[in-house]
Amino acid sequence: MKWCHVPVGGHALLGVADAGGSVELLRLVRSENSYTLEPFSRFALEKRGLALSLDWSTGKAGRASDQPLKLISSDSNGQLSLLKVSEAGPGLQAVATWQAHHFEAWIAAFNYWQTEVVYSGGDDGLLKGWDTRTPPTSVFTSRRHSMGVCSIQSSPHQENVLATGSYDEHVLLWDTRNMKQPLADTPVQGGVWRLKWHPFRRHLLLAACVHGGFKVLNCQRAVEEKQEACTVALSHILPNALVYGVDWSWLYFHRLPQAQPLFPLGSFPCSDPGAKTADVVCNLKVKGQSPASSSDPLVDDGEGGTKLQGGGRLKAPCGSRLHASRLQICDCDLYLEAANFDINLLATCSFYDHVLHLWKWDSS
Questions:
Q1: DSSP string for 23-80
Q2: pLDDT in tens, 43-67
Q3: Cβ(69)–Cβ(15) under 8 Å?
Q4: Model confidence over 11-45: pLDDT tens digits?
Q5: HSE value, Cβ hemisphere, 13 Å, CA-based, for 84
Q6: 3 state DSSP class of 282
Q7: What is the pTM of this model?
């Protein structure tokens, strides 16, 4: 599931790739006291199979008025489907479908800076690039990963930067102008099922590493100084669980001036009185504190959290102590310049234990 980053017809749209072999759009509709998701449009893939991934062409902030709104989806038959979204008409419409991989096409993703270009990764171990104006001939084929390629994301902050992950337990960072050799190769001790760039901090990359837990990579030196591997800023293993899903929160923290009153939990110093509330974020509880990671020992920080020996603190769950420290959660641009980006919210979901964890990471 992925949200479109621009409203369509005045509504937020959620794209869903499902095991029934369809891509569906759901529209977020506000009622008097709540929001509901209503079906908007559905597209059934050509061959019977599972829809495995989707990506919106709007991953980068801002979209030219004449730029079409597009989706790319991959499926278990190894095909890619390019769809366009009509903002006034029937919704999803097929543009092109082509065979991309011999086995499952685990992942498909746009180049957010050149949305005619898409990338795909398959169980055949291949990473491919495509010009959607001239399918089905690939622009390049890379065999640099040694196993199935299952995660790809173009950087929304830096043009020509691409991250890929594989069952081979490596995250590769690429300059899209030269796909013969990656910029950096970072081993992460687990198959890389998801990669997510931070919405504000351009060099931070969050990885779901299945049995290797989750990691945050700092890619600044790899991009700017050609360092051969990204720096692992955070590493945490969840015992008896496989981490398949990760994401950053677009909520951020800012410190209130001493003269400004504390807002009650659940209210925001933002222009929209109906905006998301802080207590919704903080009421997500995990089923107990996770034991220490075997690769990065964690110690009690005296405040109910854990501290990485390499610096920074990782806490679960998020609690009301945050409010007492005069830190406010916000989701609008009003306080963006005063945001404290040393404190981040991130979420993970895992197999076997069936738990959604919400983490507060202090990277200062």
A1: EEEEEEEE-SS-EEEEEEEEEE-SSSS-EEEEEETT-SS---TTSPPEEEEEETTSEE
A2: 998 888 999 999 999 988 766 656 7
A3: no
A4: 999 999 999 999 999 999 998 899 999 999 999 98
A5: 12
A6: helix
A7: 0.83
